Amino acid sequence: MDRTFDYVVIALFLIGTALLGILSGGKQKSAKDYFLGAKSVPWWAVCFSIVAAETSTLTFISIPGLAYLTNFNFLQVTFGYLIGRIIVATFFLPAYFRGDLSTAYEFLERRFGVKTRSFASIIFLFTRTAADGVRLFATAIPLKLMLDISYPLAIVIIAIFTLIYTYTGGVRGVIWVDVLLMFIYLGGAIIAGYFLLTQFLPNGMETILGSDKIAQKLSVFNLGFDGGFSEFFKQPYTLLGGLLGGAFLSMASHGTDQLIVQRLLTTKNLRAAQKAIVGSGVLVIFQFAIFLFIGVALYAFYGDMNLRADEIFPKFIIEHLPSPYSGIIIAGLFAAAMSTLAGSISSLSSSTMLDLYKPFMKHNNNEKLELRISRLVTVIWTVLLISMAIFFMNTSQTVVELALSIASFTYGGLLGTFMLGLFVKKAIQEDALAGFTSGIFLMITVISLQLVGWTWFTFVGVMGTIFVGSFISRLAFKRN
To answer: What does the mean pLDDT of the chain come to?
Structure first.
């Protein structure tokens, strides 16, 4: 099959994306302008940007692979995602918009102290680097298959093009590129689904619905009581696990993670930020349903195959879709990856500069110097993400579950600390640090021993953090 036109489409996409990011970013005069976009981005652009940032290549290739292996039960988690975002919009965002905050962790400094802010920022940096290293590796899978190159080279190619517009355009350039990228990758997914139904399945939907084995994969709800109480919490995709676990995971990722909060802080006011985050929850349910359906359709087409789940969708795109549609869809895959990668680079750099550098360099008010350092830090984090992606090349776990599991190591402690600050008025910095640290060690134990399914990780961490922090805050001797 001649792939020349596909290569042209992909090359034009990569170059065009970089140019759009450069042009839409405008000129930045300071580090705060570079990382917050002068608080001038409309809510709908931030909404699309949030969806693009959290989608990544994991959704594009791993969620269809998950549905290929299992069913629609993952959709329960997305309902929890929406619930979590409504809670963030109601309780977290008003606290963020009471002051002129530059990062999520600045709230912790105002509530507890600078030590808590620095600790939270450092935890975020480590977690985000590991989780997004997995996401960057996932992006390299189709590029490696298509060009027959090594994984490290594929990783570097994607990272370099993303770095170009992140370095020059700042967060404003990242957001406006995200708007375009979301439509590209979602359009690519719809094209793939259309071809599956009309060209590769003999009777379209009847092929899926006519087979009990395939139709069962469309099952959304799972109460999870079949295995007994002892096994209930070890199942990740139960109704309660999806709603509760998804809600707490979304509260952590969208209420405390700088990757998303940075975008929300670029809006003009609280109301705009609330519309952006709740709207993103509705869009996410819609797009996850599309990707899960593609996985079921791929099973109807291929049947059982001895192949890594993350390679099923890329295999179909490369081997069966005609040019230029395969090129458009692969460009969509890169779009999903680059949006997350760009957001990750920008959020890592912003947290480094605004949470760690500036608080300890208050005597330095040279805005031009800070901007130059910010861009240098952006390059450094790109190199570290490339290194982390190469480190995860040999993983055997489904990449979407691996990335979410990594994030869950610290999400519970992070969200628990924020909730301690919001709802436990007597808690002070020592309580917060003790609770945060306990939550992290609790999650290391729970995850290492596989005591519960991954959807429960954040919830368990939050409960442990709040319990320890609240308990210590009530010790009478500490207040005397």
So the answer is: 81
